[in-house]
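To whoever picks this up:

The parser on our side crashed when reading a file containing two proteins. I've narrowed it down to the boundary between the first structure block and the second sequence. Both blocks are reproduced below exactly, byte for byte. First block:
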Amino acid sequence: MFLSIDIDFDYDKDFSKKYFVVSNDESKIRNNISRSFLETVKRYNGLEIELDSNILLVRLRKPFTPENGKIITNFITAINDGYN
């Protein structure tokens, strides 16, 4: 049976209030998610992000438009530029 736990970040209470982070391996999350990644996530309202091993899924629960595509592209660019 899989057991997932809610993970809060004491150093970023605002992030923990706004976002729901769940994992069955808390130490893996804490060791691999940087403060700058959390700051980048907070700059993009409405994103849903899933990480599974080496797969990153980013989506908006809105109809696809060029503007919404640009939001996702800007987020991916930001985390790829080292803001993670």
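<<boundary where parser fails>>
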Amino acid sequence: MAPEPGGRERPAFCGYAAEMSETGVFIQTANPRGKGTVIKLLLHLPGLADPLCCNAEVCWSRKLGGSRGPSAGMGLRLLDASEEARSFLREFCSR
């Protein structure tokens, strides 16, 4: 998160969750972060009034693979998601 004038925080990075589990997520983005980077992750999911928030570590990343190659993005491991958040993700991913 990056500070805005007035002390509020705003997302400093945006991507799309392409695949998800209770332990991690693939974020599709044109600007993936490097392996080992820890980020604050906010996931806006249907069924949750507030975003799921936790720290996540980049386990791997890849650049765009060309017009027929894989999407650019990064695989994140959730570091400190609460048991309630993991339970929600388990249920959400089983739908």
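After patching the parser it read the second block fine. DSSP finds one helix and seven strands in the chain. The helical segments are 83-94.
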